[in-house]
Amino acid sequence: MPRQYVVLAIGVIAVSFAAIFIRLADAPALVIATYRLCLATLVILPLGWARSGKEMRRLAHRSIVMALLSGAFLALHFGLWITSLKYTSVATSVVLVTASPIFIAIASRFLFGQRLRRHAVAGIVVALAGAALIGYGNWRTGTESLFGGLLAFAAAMAVAGYLLIGQRLRQGLGTLSYVSVAYASSGALLLVVTLVLRYPLSGFSGATYVMLVLLALVPQLLGHTSLNWSLRFVPATFVAIAVLGEPVGATLWAFLILDETPALTEMIGGILILAGIFVAMRSTSSSEMTRK
Fold this sequence. Notes:
By secondary structure, the protein is mostly helical. The protein has one domain. Helices cover 82% and strands 0% of the residues. It is built from 13 helices and no strands. Residues 286-292 have low confidence and may be disordered.
């Protein structure tokens, strides 16, 4: 198998462990999010400064503001998603947060005038139907589970904002420079919010600290770095479709490690969401190929 596909597979497997590490960390959700971004920043920022320091120093004021805004969306995403795992199952949370391509497609239509093909619209409708089915199952389970599902769905909207801004910024900015600024601003914002709300940043068990470090090293650095590296050699649409394996992997790990068995509504709804995203992304890719 070509090296780029091996790296891509490693990236997908790595990010699929995020929900498991979060569940096993006995700490408030915002604290977990803060540790994840701050620890990742401690590694990425020095590397980014060493390799792209000149580019980062020459950033225009508008680019800095946009990168900071992107970091705010990323902070909101992690805050919402990690909190959702405190209320609902891994399967529900990870499948719903994967719906970000749907919001990107909708936002691109209204913000940038990108036309949605009929297949893309059909994919969006199917994905939203799957989300509604999961929501119905959560509602029957209890209000806490429904609240967790809504948080995960909102987290998908937040990461869509992060990716949309990043798409525009990276046209004139290297990946490492952009990620360094976005991670640093996101981690700083989460740290400030955590301190203002007086959440403890210490006093946890050794096992929790291990999970926090693993969360930063495995899904954030190994996972996302592998996915970003793969984009240099593998078509973006293929990478995006491969990432749909994350909720499948996360659900499997939750079953094996946490003894969480997904409900029927979660399985059917999850399949609908992933199928809808797949159809929408394939349609978008075909449209771009036609324009080229």
